[in-house]
Amino acid sequence: MRELAWDFVRGFVRWPLTLFALFAIMAAWEWLRSLGERAKADTERALDAWGAHELADFVCTRRVSNRARVEAVLLGARDAELEAWLDEIGAGADLTWERRDHGALESLRVFSRDGHRTVARERPWDELPSEARAAFLRGDATASVPWQAPWRGGAA
Amino acid sequence: MPLPLIAIYLVGAVSITVLATFWADICEWFAERASPWLEAHVPSLAPHIKKAFIFIDDKVMVPVRRAIKRAWAVVRQHLLESTVTYFKQGGEWVRRIDSYLQEKLGPRAKVIKRTEESTVDWDELPESVRAAAMSRKKSVPIDFVKTRDAELHAMELS
C-alpha cells in the first residue's frame, strides 16, 4: 500500500516535469522555426533588391526616366507595359556562388538581348541563401539560381 | 538544482557557444574534408549524414548566429561605451562597470551614464585580470563594447 502511495506521489511529481520539458522543447522549436523563416526572408529580400537594382540599372541606360519604375516592377509591382517591354528585350539575371574561405563569392549576371554585365561581391556564410549553403555542404564548389520575373511567378 | 542537471546545462551551453562561434569553420571542414571522405568510405550513409548536417545548418545554426548579430547591432546603437574595470580596494577586488547609454537615437538624444560596483572573489576574476594582478597591476580596464565587437567580427570570419 505504501509502495502504491509512493508511486502515486512520484508520478504526480514527474508528470508536470515531463509536460514542462515537452512544452520547453516545443517552444524552443517554434522559436528556431521563426528565426529560420526570418533569416530566409531577409536573405531573399536582400538578393531580390540587389538583383532588381542591378538589372534596372543595366536595362535602363536609354530609358533613365523609367529606372525607379522598372526596379519596382522587377520587385513585383504590376505594370503591363513595362512587363511587356522587359520581356521583349529579354531582360534576365542569374546568381552564382563560388565557395570561398568562410563564405562565397556571389556573382550576379544581368543580361538582355543587347549584352550582359556581371557584378560580384564576397558574402559571409550566414548571409548566403540556404540553396547555396546546402550545395556547398553536399560537396559542390558552385551553386546557381536562375532569376524568374515576378509576373511569371518569380520570388519577388 | 541537482548537480547532474547543472553539469548538463553547462556542457550544453559551452558546446552551443563553441559551435555557434566556429560554425562557418565547421561547415568549411565538412564541405572540404568530411563530405568527400564520407562519399569514399561510407557511401550508403553519406546522403543521410549530409542531409542532417544541412538541416542543422539551415534550421538551427545560421538562424541563431544571425539573431545574435542582429541583437548585438540593436544593443550597439544604444550602448555607446561600456568599460569594466577591476581594481583592489581595502584588500578586496571590485568590479566597476561604466556604461554610456542613449535611450533614444539622434544627435540631440540624452546620454545617460550608469555606474555599477560590486565585489568579486579572486576565483571569479577573468584570467587576464588575474594575470595582470600577479604582475602587481592595481587596476585592469576592459572595453566591453570593443571586446564584443571583435568577437562578433571573428564569428563573421570564422
Verbal overview:
The complex is a heterodimer of chains A (156) and B (158). Chain A is an alpha+beta fold and 156 residues long. Chain A has one domain. In chain A, 53% of the residues lie in helices and 22% in strands. Chain A contains four helices and four strands. Chain A has helices spanning 2-59, 67-74, 80-88, 130-137; strands at residues 92-100, 103-112, 115-124, 142-146. In chain A, helix 1 (2-59) runs antiparallel to helix 2 (67-74). Chain B has two domains: 3-74, no CATH class; 78-157, no CATH class. Helix content of chain B is 59%, strand content 23%. In chain B, helix 2 packs antiparallel against helix 3. Chain B is extended. Classes of the chains: A alpha+beta (156), B alpha+beta (158). At the A-B interface, helix 1 and helix 4 of A face helix 2 and helix 3 of B.
How would the blueprint of this fold be written?
The complex is a heterodimer of chains A (156) and B (158).
Chain A: H1 2-59, H2 67-74, H3 80-88, E1 92-100, E2 103-112, E3 115-124, H4 130-137, E4 142-146
Antiparallel strand pairs in A: 1-2, 1-4, 2-3
Chain B: H1 3-21, H2 23-41, H3 46-78, E1 79-89, E2 92-102, E3 111-120, H4 127-134, E4 139-143, H5 144-157
Task: Name the descriptors.
heterodimer; A: 156 residues; alpha+beta; four-stranded antiparallel sheet; 4 helices; 53% helix; elongated; B: 158 residues; 4 strands; 23% strand; extended
Question: What is the gist of this entry?
Answer:
The complex is a heterodimer of chains A (156) and B (158). With 156 residues, chain A is of the alpha+beta class. Helix content of chain A is 53%, strand content 22%.
Q: How many domains would you count in the coordinates of chain B?
A: 2
Order of helices and strands of chain B: HHHEEEHEH
Give the % helix of chain A. Answer: 40-55%
Shape of chain A: elongated
- How many domains comprise the coordinates of chain A? 1
The strands making up the biggest β-sheet of chain A line up spatially as 3-2-1-4
Largest binding interface between chains: A-B, 21 and 27 residues
Strand count, sense and barrel status of the largest sheet of chain B are: 4 strands, antiparallel
* Strand portion of chain B: 15-25%
- What portion of residues of chain B is helical? 55-70%
Count of DSSP strands of chain A: 4
- The helix tally of chain B amounts to 5
Largest sheet of chain A: 4 strands, antiparallel
Bulk shape of chain B? extended
Strand order of the largest sheet of chain B: 3-2-1-4
Average pLDDT score of chain A: 85
